[in-house]
Write a structure and sequence with these properties.
alpha+beta; 8-stranded mixed sheet; 7-stranded mixed sheet; 8 helices; disordered N terminus
Amino acid sequence: MTGGGSMSVTGERRERIPQGLEGDQRLLKRSPFTNAFAGGIYEVTWLFLAPSYYAWQALVSLTRPTTDEHRNAVWTVILFTLWSLAFIVSIPFFVIGIPFNLLSQLKRRSFTYRVYPEPVRRPVFKREWTVVSANTALFPEGRARKFNVRHNDDRARDIGVRFASAAAVTRAQRPPASTDHLLQDMVAADFVCLFQVHDPASAHRLRYQMRNHFPFMISDEGVLLMRRGRLCIGSGIMLASKYPIMDAEFIPFPGPFDNHIARGMLAAKLHLIKPHKDDMSRRTVGYIIMTELSKHAGERTQQLEYLDMHGRDFRERTLDRRTEVVGFHILTGDFKFDNVSADDKPFWSHTMFERYKDPFKERPGVDKPWSRPTHLNPKVLRDKRFVTPSALANALTNNWQEVAYMPSLLEECCVDGVGRSQYCLLKHHISDQFPSTIKTSAVITALAGITTHLPITVVFRVGDDNDNMPHFVATSTQQQSKGHFFVPSSQYQPIEVEPATPKQKDPHKHLSQRQTNVGVVAVGTEQTMPVIIADLDSDEETDSDDQDEASTTFLDISEV
């Protein structure tokens, strides 16, 4: 396998084991179905349903032109007649296929996990992380046009290319870190959290474009799904990660569906950094909770309660405190409300927000001066004045009221932060979790003219400013002979300790290693944690256990 992973064989199927998860007893299932038979039935029956689905989408699209489309009336009538005939002819196939399709979904999971070859070596040590959260508006074509966007395949390709291109830029080619809070170019992210990815073909196009840079993906697309005994479309949540996903769960919200969409929360546990091979340190993991709340205000309070309760529950069930420590815990998504509108006060004043840091918020009810709306007015999406990143950035800087979505003319319509419905929150430091410091946050205009919402990005640093090795934390007093000590402290403090004598396989192998190793005292809020000393010069984290025949040339991660 490329990228330092390995392969295991189960029956006839060879499955990739991500680097760092070798030996784990429980790996996340990758098939959308619990058995192959149900998956086969679903694929076959979709062939019966697809003609009706695409014919219907074409018919609806003809009745919903976008503001920049200019159609010939005669040609539109001809196309409408042809697509109507196609839809009528396809109805018998739909009637035959739909019962078997729905039966097969009794064995369908609520998300699909995909793993692709890793083209680059993941770093042994990393402290700064970047997250991007974005709404894509990749609904079925007919529904997408309701929001003045069209051509899903092209938009999905463009979105994927922008994320992949940003990730492909080497460190030497990147501009200096910017403190601007309005960016025109996409940023190189470690985790991309996408929402409203409902159309299956668009989801496939996104994965195809992003797979070389984000080899671990979870998605819940689909347009004819059976959830809670009802037909609906998937939640549209997609997580693209550079780091392996160890566990995940989709938790549906109670109550009625919102526009036939299966609303809920996707909770994911990610492997960040594994411990040194010769010690008993705890590996560092991260948690990302993703959601899109209902547009109905009456349901949001209950959904916020679910987010808070089930987010904590998922973490408690999946975190092994003996062998793991949390690097960060993120909650992100489209909440359908902002932090400043008086009508939204019951939501932004919810107690859940007391446990998270919002980089765009000054305090409850007040955003920072540079905060900008993320929900755009669909009527101006195709306006030539705003379809480029630079033009949209200029409008947001000088007259953002012209492009923002305003549901009503409120007194606070000119207050900074109105229409900022996209959130990316970091959980405050608690026991068994390292503290995090937000370095920068910004609104991004790189998807101008492509989607109805502006992405946001947050860059944060794990550990205190004086913390040199936040992820190396031991769990056993038996490791004291290797340079592991318990030191009571309330902060992370760098210390120098004599290194352990390495296992000498080659008398000249360790001559270039440093004479001292830097350790760190990592202490929780209620108990003292031990320190272990590890060799930062070792590259064992990135050793490849196996290479498959279609290997990809490695890129040095220090240059990527």
